[in-house]
Amino acid sequence: MSVIGVLALQGDVREHLVALAEADALARPIRRPEELAEVDGVVLPGGESTTISRLLATFDLLEPLRARIKEGMPAYGSCAGMILLADRVLDGRPDQHQLGGLDIVVRRNAFGRQVDSFEAELDFTDVGEVHAVFIRAPWVEAAGDDVEVLARVPESEDAGEAAGRIVAVRQGHVLATSFHPELTGDGRVHRLFVDMVRSAG
């Protein structure tokens, strides 16, 4: 059984642990480098990306996590996790740390403030139709040639500027979504990630 860690510094940690367990993975919270060393993959949950980046440095996890991802450990980031995995961030803070791993440019809080949070039905490659919950979410402004776009906001009058924006991507061993599949009870995105971890070996 694959052992998958959930970064437990801030955000919706419990929901990811439950979703991973339901996808037949052994899920563990991670707060220390020695715990990171024992997992086959990692989930970076939603929360506040600048706060999480500072806590990564405080808990001495920043460099070990960067190194593991660079070496090929599978990683999945939802919302703030997508921001942390992006190589480049628009409107980020100068002191914000990036883990990297995805050749994308993301815009923080692209969909607006908390009151602008919304839900939408998405066509998600290799998963199917997904009910997506967006909370102060980023979107992908640009993606490199090696990045597979898995989902976009549907084109509609209600979507406004968000229409057609990229909200789920995969590059090699790294997966990211702008939205929070852990909040809907639909475990298919987590099962996709568990399969990626198993394939990585």
TrEMBL record:
It comes from the Bacteria. InterPro entries: Class_I_gatase-like, PdxT/SNO, PdxT/SNO_CS. Pathway: Cofactor biosynthesis; pyridoxal 5'-phosphate biosynthesis. This is Pyridoxal 5'-phosphate synthase subunit PdxT. Belongs to the glutaminase PdxT/SNO family. Keywords: Glutamine amidotransferase, Hydrolase, Lyase, Pyridoxal phosphate. NCBIfam families: PLP_synth_Pdx2. The keyword Protease does not apply. One of its GO terms (molecular function) is pyridoxal 5'-phosphate synthase (glutamine hydrolysing) activity. Transmembrane segments: none annotated. Catalyzes the hydrolysis of glutamine to glutamate and ammonia as part of the biosynthesis of pyridoxal 5'-phosphate. The resulting ammonia molecule is channeled to the active site of PdxS. Its EC number is 4.3.3.6, 3.5.1.2. It catalyses: aldehydo-D-ribose 5-phosphate + D-glyceraldehyde 3-phosphate + L-glutamine = pyridoxal 5'-phosphate + L-glutamate + phosphate + 3 H2O + H(+); L-glutamine + H2O = L-glutamate + NH4(+). L-glutamine binds at residues 47-49, 108, 135-136. CDD domains: GATase1_PB. The active site is at residues 79, 180, 182. Pfam families: SNO (PF01174). In the presence of PdxS, forms a dodecamer of heterodimers. Only shows activity in the heterodimer. It comes from Saccharothrix lopnurensis.
